[in-house]
Amino acid sequence: MQAAMRGMFPALKPNYSSATSQFFFFFSTRHFSSKLFIRGLPFSMTDQMLADAFSEFGKVVKAEVIKDKDKKKSKGFGYVTFDSEDEAQKALRSTHGKPMHGRVVFVDKQE
Fold first, then answer.
1. Is the pLDDT of residue 108 over 50?
2. Which helix (H) or strand (E) holds 78?
3. Which of 22, 44, 89, 93 is the most buried (most CB within 10 A)?
4. Residues 6 or more apart from 39 whose CB is under 8 A from it?
5. H or E segment and range at residue 105
6. CB contact at 8 A, 75 and 67
7. Quick one: the chain helix, strand, coil %, rounded to 5?
8. How far is the first Cα of the chain from the last one, in angstroms, to the nearest whole number?
9. How far is CA 33 from CA 2, 49, 60, in A?
10. CA atoms within 13 A on the CB side of 78
């Protein structure tokens, strides 16, 4: 069986120059995500309140506060997706470590 498998898959020699260029291409073309992760949200925060709080930085495509399945209350974190990466970057720079509705929020890009 192994002999048959060897015949099906010819030996591949690693091409390190190709692998290196692919590695650098991957990291040089990665973009900032337009989706942000926000923690430290007030437990009274709703999806609409979150969207309103971030709408000053651009068009909010989706805002979601993560809720406990049983109690239906906020877990204190959520996600905001913007129309563009630039808007997300502006929101991240402007809101990270700043108070929002009485609590300090921490914002990070979601990959």
1. yes
2. strand 74-82
3. 89
4. 76, 77, 105, 106
5. strand 103-109
6. yes
7. 40, 30, 30
8. 42
9. 45, 22, 13
10. 26
pLDDT of 109 higher than 90: yes
Q: What whole-number distance in Å separates Cα of residue 6 and Cα of residue 105?
A: 56
Residue type, 100: M
* Mean per-residue pLDDT over the chain, rounded: 81
Cα(98)–Cα(100) distance, integer angstroms:
7
Give 19's strand partners.
none
Helix (H/G/I), strand (E/B), else coil: 85: helix
For β-strands 103-109 and 98-100, DSSP reports them as: antiparallel
The length of the chain, given as a count of residues: 111
Q: Return d(Cα 91, Cα 51) in angstroms, integer.
A: 12
